[in-house]
TrEMBL record:
Organism for this UniProt entry: Desulfuromonas acetoxidans (strain DSM 684 / 11070)
Record protein name field: ABC transporter related
Keywords: ATP-binding, Nucleotide-binding, Transport
GO terms, molecular function: ATP binding; ATP hydrolysis activity
GO CC annotations on file: plasma membrane
Stretches of the chain forming a coiled coil according to its record: none
Length: 258
């Protein structure tokens, strides 16, 4: 689904990513982990077009088609079916919960201003369809009864789920989840875990950046470990947990912060 080949990114000559190569297989959950400063956010930003890699290739493969996306801007990558959630929530706090999810269908709304002003019947029908899909997405994440609330007044856990509803509503090819359970309590974390399992059952491809190792090891099909911008391990949760380089990277980072 997503192929990364020798992706490197430098900031002012300093390497943040070096020769990162791995694949995100279709219909699976791939977790990207690593100590603080390992390069996870930089990589997510390269995949979503927020940053352009210094060199290397990032391509979206669908059947026999493969498209290079490393040079495309964010909106073009989003139109190709890559959605994301953010580590620090990025919601429209003053808009309603429903409107926040509708923003996730922006690519499909696709009407011109003139058409919107004319309020053609076709367009009204289209709007109703999109609203229905947004409500369904809210319902999946247990938020349908809050559709009219301003997003800003919701509890933190609900905001995290709203981001998931917005990222999934367009049924993207690939969803990047940046720390989806950070700051959630055990019950909320379990609920998100179940929702992610359900998405996988439905065939959704997920790339998950997460510090919660219990969640990662219990959920992921494949774990990719970054350290100082390099992939130091890639395999099943079992393989990765036994890998001496991984243990060393995590122990090293714990000593550094002790
Ligand atoms: N815009 C930037 N300019 C300069 N250096 C940067 C920039 N963004 C990231 N870096 C550096 O790149 C390296 C990787 O940072 P990055 O934020 O990608 O790590 P991370 O794995 O996401 O860390 P964390 O788990 O703490 O979020 C770090 O050394 C960081 O200081």
């Amino acid at each position: 689904m997503l192929h990364l080949d020798a992706v490197s990114k430098q900031f002012g000559g300093l390497p943040a990513l070096s020769d990162v190569t791995f694949r995100v297989p279709q219909g699976q959950i791939t977790a990207l982990i690593g100590p603080n400063g390992a390069g996870k956010s930089t990589l997510i930003n390269c995949i979503t077009g927020v940053l352009t890699p210094t060199c290397g290739s990032i391509s979206l493969a669908n059947g026999t088609n493969s498209q290079e996306i490393s040079t495309l801007p964010s909106h073009a990558i989003s139109r190709l079916g890559v959605a994301r959630t953010f580590q620090n929530l990025k919601l429209f706090e003053r808009l309603s919960v429903l409107d926040n999810v509708l923003a996730g269908l922006n690519n499909e709304a696709g009407s011109s201003l003139i058409m919107a002003l004319l309020r053609l019947p076709y367009l009204r029908h289209r709007e109703r369809q999109l609203k229905l899909r947004a409500l369904e997405a809210l319902d999946r994440f247990g938020l349908a009864d809050k559709a009219d609330w301003p997003a800003g007044v919701m509890a933190y856990g609900d905001k995290k789920r709203l981001e998931l509803a917005r990222a999934t509503v367009s049924q993207p090819q690939l969803i990047l989840l940046d720390e989806p359970v950070a700051g959630l309590n055990a019950t909320e974390t379990l609920a998100v875990e179940q929702q992610l399992r359900r998405l996988r059952q439905e065939g959704q491809t997920l790339l998950l950046v997460e510090h919660d190792m219990e969640l990662v090891m219990g959920l992921a099909d494949q774990v990719v470990v970054l350290d100082s911008g390099c992939v130091i391990a890639c395999g099943t949760p079992d393989e990765v947990q036994k890998n001496p380089r991984v243990l060393e990277a995590y122990l090293g980072s714990m000593e550094a912060t002790a």
